[in-house]
Amino acid sequence: MSLHVSRHDFDQWMMPVYAPAAFVPVRAEGSTVWDQNGKDYIDFAGGIAVNALGHAHPALQQALQDQAARLWHTGNGYTNEPILRLAKQLIDATFADRVFFCNSGAEANEAALKLARKVAHDRFGAHKSGIVAFTNAFHGRTLFTVSAGGQPAYSKDFAPLPPDIQHAAFNDLEAAAALINENTCAVIVEPIQGEGGVLPAEPAFLRGLRELCDKHQALLIFDEVQSGVGRTGSLYAYMHYGITPDVLTSAKALGGGFPIGAMLTREDLALVMGVGTHGTTYGGNPLAGAVAGKVMELINQPEMMAGVAQRHTWIVEALDELNQRLHLFKQVRGLGLLIGAVLSDDFAGKAKQINLAAAEMGVMVLIAGANVVRFAPALNISEQELRTGMARFAEACESFARGTSS
Questions:
Q1: Domains in the chain, CATH or no CATH each
Q2: 299 and 289 in contact (C-beta within 8 Å)?
Q3: pLDDT digit string (tens) for 282-335?
């Protein structure tokens, strides 16, 4: 007999690094989730921009089942067919010549930063170790990546932190230029800051970083963990901007819910990392490769990208209509299906309260800091689910607004 568990058990048994919702999801299909009591929720969170094709997609289920019947895991002493096919898909679809597979976005960024340091040390010497990142960035939770992320709340308790990492204001090219010099080995940037507030980069900012990196022989790393795999309406956001990085990191949506990460780069850079310089036990396993290969096949299609643009319009129109009544938001920003609704000054700091109110009404949304409600639904969310979810979100906002004015 299986053990009956509840949300209360989390507080008793789990390390308290999360504060999960009051309900426990048990089943999902498409963009609808059901909890232990049978209540349904429209999913605009997408597992934090992970479930790019929704829940229980038949083709992904089949890919996983087929591979599970063949080969699960071998370790990095062997390669496998699904991961080789996935590597070729990514190479054919992007600027990259080589791929390193891992299990998460943090690991992909860790690999990218290690690559940058090794390239610089091998070509120029140990002095060229500086990394420039940006305030309010998020690159992961390893000690190296949390140090590169420009949010001290996530790193202050774990000092001493890795040295030679400096932060400039995001979208401030002059501030970045003041930090980038001959000792800089890499600049790491999110084309759209996700956790930092759903803030897209200005095209001129990214162009300027590309020029500065070229001038000072530093690598430009695009962290596309959240913005990649169709999220913006382009396969990767660098394609939207028309600015090519030296290194790109991908994860989240790449596996459609199955854990996988990837670092993509050019041939000349990849060859710096010889046998034994980096590795991972689970990274590039056949199950992940099979599922991610099917994800890429389904998402890297013109019809899917056009669908992302259409759904963006529907969500923004619904938010604008809601805002005309309630005046909750001072800005709605983002690209594709990574959308942030920035709270007006009168409701500053209340994003979590709106998140909780939305759950009560049967819709799952995210926050991006205390002042931004974030939407990252499946790229293929149905129009009916989207409109139902936005209607429920409007009800939640109306309830919230009444509560704050009473």
A1: 7-56+302-405 (3.90.1150.10), 71-299 (3.40.640.10)
A2: no
A3: 999 999 999 999 999 999 999 999 999 999 999 999 999 999 999 999 999 999
DSSP 164: S
Q: Check if the beta carbon of residue 316 is closer than 8 Å to that of residue 332.
A: yes
**Partner residues linked to 41 by β-bridges:** 33
Structure tokens given for 65: 């089942």
Return d(Cα 183, Cα 213) in angstroms, integer.
11
Residues in the chain: 406
CB contact at 8 A, 139 and 112: no
Residue 23 to residue 60: CA distance in whole angstroms? 26
Copy the structure tokens of residue 395. Answer: 């009800």
Nearest-CA neighbor of 251 among 52, 73, 394, 84?
A: 52
pLDDT at residue 402, rounded to an integer? 87
Q: Which two tokens stand for residue 90?
A: 């990514």
What mean pLDDT do residues 267-287 have? Answer: 96
Q: Are 192 and 198 in contact (CB under 8 A)?
A: yes
| pTM of the complete model | 0.97
**C-alpha distances in Å from residue 216, one per residue of 88, 163, 219, 376:** 31, 20, 9, 36
Enumerate residues 6+ apart whose C-beta is below 8 A from 160.
none
Q: Mean per-residue pLDDT for 242-261?
A: 98
Pair 354, 373: CB distance under 8 Å: yes
Kindly report the CA angle at 226 between 81 and 376, in degrees rounded to 5?
115
Answer yes or no: are the C-beta atoms of 183 and 128 closer than 8 Å.
yes
If one counts every other C-beta atom within 10 angstroms of the C-beta of residue 300, the result is: 16
